[in-house]
Every structure is written in structure tokens, then in C-alpha cells.
Design brief:
Strand order of the largest sheet: 6-7-8-3-9-10
Distance between the termini: 46 Å
Number of strands: 10
Largest sheet: 6 strands, mixed
Strand content: 5-15%
Structural class: alpha/beta
Bound molecules: adenosine-5'-triphosphate, magnesium ion
Length: 588
């Protein structure tokens, strides 16, 4: 994953929240209005209580009717405030969930459109956690920012106003609570931030560790590395536990106790001020009662807010990360409208590197005619798969051009491009779906087309033996199938779209000789009807190609038919063929 941009996470988080909220801004305003009402109702209780004390209790003036009225008023306003608040919490919860669902969709959508180069350096675990965990943390942020903070702000401001109306000097004493809380939070943040960051980092490592060990379970068990892995995990786990304990210590000292202490200090201050002024007869007992209950109400939401502060901090960081991911530029969507009709390919002086300065392909010049079957051979790491990746438009090409039917590849309409160019990759990738879904890949293809493609790929026979035929679920990554079978399905998938250009990367590497013959026959049947570019290690599979390009260190060093290349006695191709003959690999 790239380093986090240095921009302020809080600002990023706020921007993300606002973007996701915008469609529901009205709901937020309504919520705010109701919260204000709830706040006002909340302050009404003690105010009525004050009237009760000062007018009837202290003067010992039992006007029963009014007294009952006041008590009922206190009760009703309290109930109404609670009810309103609950109702708003539910509303905000819904709002938060909808917004998070929106964010998650956006993020996933965005990730699908990132350029391939991004994934070369990204870690899968980290990306998965962006899309799921981090967006979930954003939900907490919503509930906390929108509800707890909003409610707290509303409450504190309404209470301060009410207090000012009752007695502004006492209000000033109570108001010192706000900066005091801010100081406690600042100190807390200072003390806990390193532990919080560390425990987060360690949690990431723990997750990655589990994911890795599950992914490589077969290797782990076969090499007897389980015990070492377990020990490494235990060490990580303990470090995580220590970081959490340090965090907890900061929480335990600073949050609840420190804030409770502040609340008590405030009460003492108010009672003292009251006591000092009481002999002058300027204060009523009811005011004291109202203030005491108001102080309780101000401290409670502030305490709630601060105890959730570490959670809030984490959520802000998570939201900032999600927002940073959303800022990653997408792969440019080709705007061109050019079409592929024949399938002629031209590389002109094309060079390419994954990382700057590290040329993987150099000055490739190659013309492939429509309907030609071109074999590509060469040592490992020579750049064969890279050639195919460029043909698939997975990376931008800058020095030199690559064109199909005379149009630079990036000028070709996206949909046309994806139907016209099909790939059978080096490691077949299957989705956790049925055979049918894996061949169709969401394209609207009829059952006949699918079956014809499967037959052409030589996959029909083994599919027929599966328990539910074409409707058999294949498990995650096609884990129920042998590698060769996965490859056959990948071939069927490529053929099903009736492409103009078919790219095969070691398409028959894992297939037995008999099935391979069948696939080669199917390909031979397609010969001339579409352009085929086939990368092969086993040279026999491309022996019948019209031409064979030999790639070495990113350059095309030889080009010609099998017979022509064999004539060159010192040629790389001939050497490779002879080596394979000697090792018995060449079955053709
Ligand atoms: P093989 O026969 O083993 O499949 P290949 O000819 O297909 O090899 P490529 O996969 O094209 O080789 O790789 C060519 C070079 O580019 C290699 O040196 C490889 O390390 C490098 N390379 C391949 N993919 C990437 C990538 N995504 N990021 C950086 N370098 C890469
Ligand atoms: Mg390769």
C-alpha cells in the first residue's frame, strides 16, 4: 500500500462523511431540529423543579393543583426528551448504515477501476480491510459524530443558555467545564496515541498473518512450519496485548475518573459560590437545585464523548484511509469509439517497464496479420506475459505504440475491446460460482453457446461428470477442480465470447497430453478465423503456428515458422527445441 498522504486525516474524514451524507442532508437537519427540541425539553425539567421549590416548597405554600402540574410537567418533559432522543438515534443509525453501504459500494466500484499498476504494489489484505473493516469503522464515526457529538453539542449549548438565563455568574463557573474537558482530552490523546497506533498496526499484522497461513495451509503443513508459525503468531499476539493494556491504562486514568473529578469539582465550585452569595439573599434554593442537575447533564454527554474518543480517533484514521483510496486515480477509461473488425495487431517500437528504469520489453516491432496463429516462446522472465498484458490494455504504453486494426489500443471502445480480445491466463482464475457462471462471466450467453465453447475447449466431458453438470458450484477459486480442469474452463470462457483475438498464456501447461491434443485440435479448427497469440513453454504446442516469435530479455530475437527457425543452427529456438527433445518434453 502506498504511504498515506500527509493531508490532515480529520479533514479527509469530514469530506468523506459529507460526500456520503449529501443525499440525505434533509434527514440530518430534521434530526438536528429534533435533538434541539429534546435538549430544550431536557432543560425544562430542572427549570420546572426550580419553580416548584422556590414558589411552593420554600415558602411552604401548598397549592396542590399547581404542584401536581409541575411534577407532571417534569415527568412528561423528561419522558418526551428521552423518547425523542431514542427516535433520533434509530433514525441516525439507519442513515449511518445507508451512508456506509453507499461508501462501500463506491469504494468497491473504485477499486475495480484502478489501473493494474496499482495492484502490482498493493497488498490484498490491506485492500480487503479498506473495503470492509475501514468502511465499518466509518459507520461508527457516523453514529458518534452525528449522534453523540451532535447531541452533546446541542445539550451543552442549550444548557449553557438556560443557565445564563437563570444566573449568569453561576453559568460562568459551569462553563469552565468545557475547556477543562478539552484539556483532559488533549492530555489523553498525547498519552494514548502511541499505544493506539501500535495496537492498530499489530492488529493489521495479526490479520495478515492469519490470512497468509490459511492461504498457504497446504505448504505450511507439508513443510512442518505450523509450530514456527504458531510461535510467531503468539509473539505478535502478546505485543498486541501489551499495546492494548497500555491504551487501557491511559483510558482508566484519564477518562472516567478524571472527568468525574471535574464534575465533582464543578459542583463544589457552584455550591461554594452559592454559599458565599446566599447571605446576601440574591439566590434562591431552586436555582441551586437546577444547577446541580444541569451540571450532571453536561458532564454525562461530555464523558460519553471522551470515553469514545479513542474509538473516534481510529474511525477518523479509517475514514481518511478510505478517502485516500478513493483519491487514487482510476485507470483512464478509453474514450475512443474505434472498433475491432479483423484483428490485425501491430507493435511499433514499443518499450515497457513496470518500474521506471527497469525495461521489461525493448523496441518490440511486430506485425500480426488477421487470422494468424503466432507462437511466442522464450525463457522465464523474458517478457512474454507482459506482451499479452499490453495487448489486453492492462497497462498504458508510452514509448512506441500498440495498435489493433490500425487504432491505438487505448482508442478502442471498451465494450468492443473486451468482447474482441480474450485471454486464457497463465494461472486460471475461477470465481466461487457454478461452471456455467464461470464460463459466461456475466455475459448474456445462451446455454448452447456455453456448451459449444466447452466442447471446443475439451471441457465438456469432465463437466458432464460433475454432480450437477454445468450447475455444479466450484468453490472459492475453483478449489474443487484440478488445475488442468480450471484451465479448460478458462479456455471455454475465452472461446464463449467469440473473440477476434485470442491470447493464450501457457494455456495447456497443466493439461495431460490427450486433452492437450484435443485443445490443440479445437484451436486448429479456429485457425484462420481469428488471430491467435499463444505463449508456450512446451514448444510442441506452437510448432504448427504460422510464425513463432522468440523473446529473450525483452526483445524479439528470432521470428519465423518452425522450419525456418530450425534452419538457424546457432539460433535460440533450435537450441530450445533440442534441449526439450533431450529431456523428453517434446511430444510433438
Ligand atoms: P514466464 O515464462 O515465467 O511466465 P514471462 O516471459 O511471462 O515469464 P513476464 O511475466 O512477462 O515473464 O515478466 C517479465 C519481467 O517483468 C520479469 O523480470 C518479471 O520479474 C517482471 N514483472 C512481471 N510482472 C511484473 C509486475 N507486475 N511488476 C513488476 N515487474 C514485473
Ligand atoms: Mg508468463
Amino acid at each position: 500500500m502506498r504511504p498515506e498522504p500527509a493531508r490532515d486525516p480529520a479533514r479527509r474524514a469530514a469530506r468523506l462523511l459529507w460526500q456520503a451524507l449529501r443525499p440525505e442532508a434533509r434527514n440530518v437537519w430534521i434530526c438536528l431540529a429534533w435533538l434541539l427540541t429534546a435538549g430544550a425539553l431536557d432543560t425544562l425539567g430542572p427549570a420546572l423543579g426550580k419553580a416548584f421549590i422556590d414558589r411552593y416548597l420554600v415558602p411552604r405554600d401548598p397549592a396542590l393543583g399547581t404542584m401536581v402540574g409541575l411534577v407532571v410537567g417534569v415527568f412528561v418533559s423528561g419522558c418526551a426528551a428521552t423518547w425523542l432522543r431514542h427516535f433520533q438515534l434509530v433514525r441516525l443509525g439507519g442513515l449511518a448504515m445507508r451512508s456506509v453501504a453507499r461508501i462501500r459500494d463506491t469504494v468497491h466500484h473504485h477499486v475495480l477501476r484502478l489501473p493494474m499498476a496499482y495492484f502490482d504494489s498493493a497488498s490484498t489484505g490491506a485492500l480487503v480491510s479498506r473495503v470492509t473493516n475501514d468502511t465499518e469503522a466509518v459507520r461508527l464515526l457516523y453514529v458518534q459524530v452525528l449522534f453523540v457529538m451532535l447531541d452533546c453539542l446541542v445539550m451543552v449549548s442549550v444548557l449553557l443558555v438556560t443557565m445564563a438565563l437563570l444566573d449568569w455568574r453561576l453559568m460562568l463557573i459551569a462553563a469552565t467545564l468545557v475547556p477543562a474537558v478539552l484539556i483532559v482530552v488533549a492530555v489523553y490523546r498525547r498519552l494514548s496515541a502511541p499505544a493506539v497506533a501500535r495496537s492498530r498496526e499489530l492488529r493489521g499484522q495479526l490479520n495478515a498473518h492469519v490470512a497468509e497461513s490459511i492461504g498457504g495451509m497446504a505448504v505450511l503443513q507439508a513443510t512442518g512450519a505450523s509450530a514456527r508459525y504458531a510461535a510467531r503468531y503468539a509473539a505478535l499476539n502478546e505485543a498486541h496485548w501489551r499495546a492494548r493494556v497500555a491504551e487501557l491504562r491511559a483510558n482508566a486514568w484519564l477518562l472516567r475518573p478524571a472527568l468525574d473529578l471535574l464534575g465533582v469539582a464543578m459542583l463544589i465550585g457552584i455550591i461554594m459560590a452559592f454559599g458565599l452569595r446566599a447571605p446576601q439573599g440574591t439566590l434562591e434554593v431552586g436555582v441551586l437545585y437546577a444547577f446541580v442537575s444541569y451540571i450532571g447533564r453536561v458532564t454525562e454527554p461530555l464523558i460519553q464523548l471522551t470515553t469514545q474518543f479513542s474509538q473516534l480517533q481510529q474511525s477518523v484514521v479509517a475514514a481518511a484511509r478510505v478517502s485516500a483510496l478513493l483519491d487514487e486515480p482510476r485507470a483512464p477509461q478509453p474514450a475512443g469509439l474505434a472498433r475491432i473488425t479483423a484483428g490485425a495487431i501491430r507493435f511499433s517500437d514499443l518499450s515497457f517497464c513496470y518500474t521506471p528504469g527497469n525495461l521489461v520489453l525493448q523496441a518490440i516491432r511486430l506485425d500480426i496479420a488477421p487470422g494468424e496463429f503466432l507462437g511466442i516462446v522464450g525463457p522465464t522472465g523474458s517478457g512474454k506475459s507482459t506482451l499479452l498484458a499490453l495487448l489486453l490494455r492492462l497497462y498504458p504504453v508510452s514509448p512506441g505504440t500498440l495498435s489493433i486494426d490500425g487504432h491505438p489500443v487505448h482508442d478502442i471502445d471498451e465494450e468492443t475491446f473486451r468482447t474482441a480480445v480474450a485471454l486464457v491466463p497463465q494461472d486460471p482464475f475461477l470465481l466461487a460460482g457454478t461452471v456455467r457462471e464461470n464460463i459466461a462471466m456475466g455475459r448474456p450467453l445462451s446455454a448452447e453457446t456455453l456448451e459449444a465453447a466447452a466442447r471446443a475447449a475439451g471441457a465438456h466431458d469432465f463437466i458432464a461428470t460433475l454432480p450437477n453438470g454445468y450447475d455444479t458450484p466450484l468453490g472459492e477459486g475453483g478449489s474443487r477442480l484440478a488445475t488442468g480442469e480450471k484451465q479448460l474452463i478458462a479456455i471455454a470462457r475465452a472461446l464463449a465470447g467469440d473473440p477476434r483475438i485470442l491470447l493464450l498464456d501457457e494455456a495447456t501447461a497443466h493439461i495431460d497430453t490427450a486433452t492437450e491434443q484435443q485443445v490443440l485440435q479445437s484451436l486448429a479448427a479456429l485457425r484462420g478465423r481469428l488471430t491467435i497469440v499463444s505463449v508456450a513453454h512446451r514448444l510442441a504446442t506452437v510448432r504448427d503456428a504460422h510464425r513463432i516469435a522468440v523473446v529473450n530479455h525483452g526483445r524479439i530475437v528470432e521470428l519465423g515458422s518452425h522450419d525456418a527457425l530450425m534452419e538457424n543452427e546457432s539460433g535460440l529456438y533450435r537450441r530450445m527445441v533440442e534441449l526439450q527433445r533431450l529431456s523428453g518434453l517434446d511430444t510433438g
